[in-house]
Structure formats: C-alpha cells, structure tokens
Amino acid sequence: MIVEAAALAGFSGRDVPDYDLHRIGGPRFLPGHSREELWARQVFGVAASVGRDVRGFRLSLEGGGGGAWDRREQISLADLQWGVGACVARQTRLGPVTLQAGIDEDGRKAVYLSTGRR
C-alpha cells in the first residue's frame, strides 16, 4: 500500500502581474477542475492518495481540496473547493505515463493524461 500527501501554499502581500499569480487546479489538488484553473494572490491546497502497484501499474484513489483568494483576509476554510479521483500510472523511459479522472464538488468531471514529470 502506498500513501502520499502533498500541500501547496502561496501568499503575496502586494499586487503582482497576472503571469505571477499563484495557480491551483486539477488533477492533484482539485480533481475535476482544469489544470491550474484558479489564479490568485493567495492559494492553499492539500491532497492525499492511497495506491497499490499491480503488475507494473500504480492504481490509486485520490482526493484534494483547495482555494484561491485575492486578499489574505478573504481566506476561509468554508470556501475550499474539493474533488476526488482515480489514477492509473506506469513508469516508462519518458517518465511516468498517467491517466487520471476526477469529479469535483459540483459534479463536474475531468480526465487528464500526462507524460513525464512536471
């Protein structure tokens, strides 16, 4: 059994250009959301997964939550968005090849295909 956890926090005390905003999204922190869907000066996210290696493939169930806010005083745990998903991954010469699917708190679904490490 393989258990993994991750956290993401980004805070900015002043205005920053759009290209420097912190980003959060699927598949890791917000399954069901687009990749880097939420952009803001403050972001926070947590994720966890439980998996197992079977015949060269890693099968896992994942969950995550997070949010993005413009100002620190807006940060609230009640505003966190979340999602759950499943993943199939295999190590290759190009790095891991991963197929993930997720659904968010509103029932929106997404499928992600990745090759290599980010």
Secondary structure elements and their pairing?
Elements: E1 2-10, E2 22-24, E3 38-40, E4 42-54, E5 57-69, E6 81-92, E7 95-104, E8 109-115
Antiparallel strand pairs: 1-4, 2-3, 4-5, 5-6, 6-7, 7-8
What is this entry, summarized?
This protein has 118 residues and is mainly β.
Features:
118 residues; 8 strands; mainly beta
Number of strands: 8
Taking the alpha carbons of the first and last residues, their distance comes to 24 Å
Overall 3D form: elongated
Major beta sheet summary? 6 strands, antiparallel
Mean pLDDT: 93
Can you describe what's shown?
With 118 residues, the protein is mainly β. The chain has one domain. The protein is 0% helix and 59% strand. The protein contains no helices and eight strands. The chain has strands spanning 2-10, 22-24, 38-40, 42-54, 57-69, 81-92, 95-104, 109-115. The protein has a six-stranded antiparallel beta sheet with strand order 1-4-5-6-7-8, with no helix packed on it. A two-stranded antiparallel ribbon has the order 2-3. A hairpin with a 4-residue loop joins strand 7 and strand 8 (109-115). The chain is elongated. The protein starts with a strand and ends with a strand.
